[in-house]
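Narrative summary of target 7.
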Amino acid sequence: MNTEILKVFDVNGKLLGTSTRENVHSKGLWHETFHCWFVSIENNKQYIHFQLRSNQKKDYPNMLDISAAGHLNATESVADGIREVHEELGANVSIEDLIYIGKIPDEIINEDMIDREFGQVFIYIIPNEFTINFKFQVEEVAGIIKVELDSFEQLWLEKIESVQAKGIVLNEQLKKVELKRWVRKGDFLPHNNTYIFKFLKELRYILNESIS
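Modeled conformation, tokenized:
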């Protein structure tokens, strides 16, 4: 297995050099990632589409997360991160189809790693007439589940305990099946509140602009 080399930064985003992915996570070094959030507008309701992480994942298996995301290697540009959309979801989407909303810091800390990311965050608004034929990277992704935007925000604010979600997931035979379920905040990867609320603020602005 090749060792991943990542750029590392100080807390202000100044490039310091490079380090291995293992070292970055063990020492809590700031590094760069690519985040792409799929969203849709259906029957005048706005939805966020979450990736269901595979049960094969070492970190946070079976949890809901950003539609497609991953580390940017030291030799990659931000635009190169579109490969995550292609690899994880099999979606025929180009970087020109995405809307960039900015670099948003995010910290996720547990007993096994300290993950400090500068997320290069993009939004993909799924066209009304377009149905994506997802081809999931089974060792990474087990499905895509959507949640209404307003409901997700209320859930994250802990004003409600659960929300209804629906989507497409892989069954035990790796066949795509429809799923409806209730999800709680604990079903989502524990992103930093500052990251989530910044993302939601920018998302609402983009969606309002696209409607007006």
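The longest strand covers residues 30-42.
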